[in-house]
Amino acid sequence: MARKVSPDWAAQALAEAGYNDSGFLRDILLSEFEHKSPAAVRQEAKVRSEAIFSSYDTLHEIMIRHEATIRKRWGKKIRPQRLKILLNAWPGMPVMHRPDFDAIRKCSARGQYLKADPQYRSEFIWPYINQEDLVQPKTLLLLLNARGRHPPFEFSGTDGAAMHLGHVTKAIIPIFLSKHVMIIDGATNATDYGRLISWEDHPHAFVWMMTRKQYLPGEGLLVLEAQERLLKFLVDCCKQILHDVPEDTLTTDAFPVQPEPAIHVEGESSGLGSLALLAAEAPYRVPTHLDLGRIVSLLGARESAAEDHLWALREDPSYFAEQLEDAKEHRSEMLKDINGDIHPTLRPGHETTFWARLIGQVVASAYAQLEAFSELRRQAKNLQELQQKHRSNIDPTKDLPQEYRLAILKFRHYADKLAQGHLAVLRDEVPASPPLRSRYVRCQPWNSTSSEMDIRLRRIVKGSTVELETNWLLSTLMVDGFSLFLISMPLILDELERLLQAEKSASDLLSARVAGTIGDLSILSQCINQIDLYLPWARTFEHVTLDQQNSIDKDYTETFAPWQEISAALQADDLQEVATLANPLRKKFFYPVEKRRTKENVETLRLAERNLDDVWDRLDRLMHAKCGKMDRTAARQLLSQPRILQRTPPWTAKAPVATKQQEQKLDDLDTLYRPLSTLYFGLHPQESKDAQDIQRTKQKTRGVPQQAQPPTSPSSPLDTELANTEPQPAPITVDSKSFKVFRTLFFNPESTSTPGEIAWADFLHAMTSTGLFSADKLYGSVWQFERSDGLGLGRIQFHEPHPRGKIPFTIARRYGRRLNRAFGWSGETFRVRRRG
What we know:
Helix 15 (351-389) packs antiparallel against helix 16 (402-429) and helix 17 runs antiparallel to helix 19 (489-502). The protein folds into four domains: 38-244, no CATH class; 291-462 and 533-569, no CATH class; 641-721, no CATH class; 732-832, no CATH class. It is α+β, with helices and mostly antiparallel strands and 836 residues long. Strand 13 and strand 14 (782-787) form a beta hairpin. Strands 3-13-14-15 form a four-stranded mixed β-sheet, with helices on both faces. A three-stranded antiparallel β-sheet has the order 6-7-8.
């Protein structure tokens, strides 16, 4: 159920944190530009260009001869020694990471403008030049390697983009010169680099300016200024590190050219990587090309997770109940009003309306996630194919092929639209989340049962610096206005993730559900950022999109029309009966799967499964009646596949088995199966009860399994799936610590041991110790595990438990089922590595 929540509470949160949201934005577009003559611009550009190429040539010669020595010496220096070198080369270097953000916070808190303030100009031109980052062992080395081995024009786009905050806050004001354009992209020598061209002197000059293929004179001068000082700084650092080498021989053949040393990638040896780390290192590396493989991987894993989520909602009663309870705790109805009263729908006699809304939200969200990430993954895969198709025609000096360019613009539009949807979810759920709920209040009449609410801060609360910082970043993300547009979502997410990783008190302010939404936003943000940094073409996308906007909007509407039908089918008024069945407070989904099988336990499991099946039978009928077969949807494709739900068979007394291995096999066989959705196996909805009898069982007699009963309908797709037994994966040998983790993930309920929690660090170790996966930390709580053995494709995402960092057994069991579906793993897949 879509809800409208006023963003005023977020603006108040900015004020609470001490940030005047309008202070540095007021009259932002009314700044006066300094004017310069063409002759003055040409002279300045000439001087700066010559200095740039002089420093670049020196740096290049140093790096091809001494890079290995520089790396070795820098690695041996302690922090004070590194800091001394940095400050000698750049006096007054800002102390903290992202000094431009720090300047915004300081000035905004004082209600001051940043407009053309010389005090902070340096911070906004070179936000990546700061002590906190460069004093690290690796950062300066990355910067030296990138700038010393690649010509300046390759960095012009990123150097200009680095000043984004300075431009939008008017802390940096470029000079103004009309009817001219500056050539930077593609120029490889000092004569052409920064060359000023009048519109009258070249037939394409005006087009280059309008499409942003080249630079406005003021923007170009700022790029030249940034590169001139940066390259001089790097040369000075090299000379200090190589202080014992005479300067007159530093770049001569007295030292022969050496092979480029390999760059160590963080997490390479351990199999653990971090999206936040990649984002932090990006300003110091060579700008990457459009990494569509990375995008396809992220979206493919998220699509798989969406499928598993919808599957688990249908299969696992306890998961279904937990998802409802978690969504309930983030509904705005949980907030008390200005008089301290609860929402009318939570009062006795009105709960059905609330639960109908809640069930509609949970189910609609599950379908929406699947549709969104499936479509984005499909488009990214198509982009990958088009990139390969047109690879011979992709040239930085030419326009992109039209087919390829249109696909990029379409993908960018879809990702942005879906990101806006996730931001709306944050606006709805953050105020009601348990860690922050006490700080917000509903401004609503006491008798209003509407789901549209005005949410505001209860009071101004002064917190710690970390809390204020977290609040400001969250609020900036969620204010649907100018602040987020100017600062940009990728920058805010980068800063938020950095803070959450560094400060536990910041992480404690986010519930697991909110952290998961931020994780989804990070994936979408990565998609958007990849396109925006696809230089030099990304500079032209805004102009080109204007001509294609109507067709792209129409395509988006048509693509997600089936999803709109699904959403409309799940309105609260039509879910009253389902709400009565699905209210988990009545303990209908109690599911003690971790307990040893007894007659009473088995009956409890079967009752919970029947209750869940009844709920989904009614939901399926409702959606089928209103949406038909949901053709052209990812949900239709998933539900029509011969994938099967596991169901507990009736209780039968068991004779003792001969061995634990036989016992494990019997437990695997003793399971009932039914279709994921009866509506998409050619079965009439009324046959859903009979469909529960579709099963694959083997009777147990004296511990020896007998032949399975013949299928009741050999021609059905379900029986085709059952008849085709997938080959078992090769055994995987792991250490005893990892084996204990996998034994819990694939727990045998007939075992005498009691399952316990799994530490998240142990789970990471177990997955990477198989030698099959690398682990990548995304934003929020999301981790991605991707095949790294080269023997096959596969990836899967899991959420790091929050805030305790422990995986309870019930969740570990779900992890095991997902790994079984994705890779065919079971308890028998793993063996303990023998010592010695």
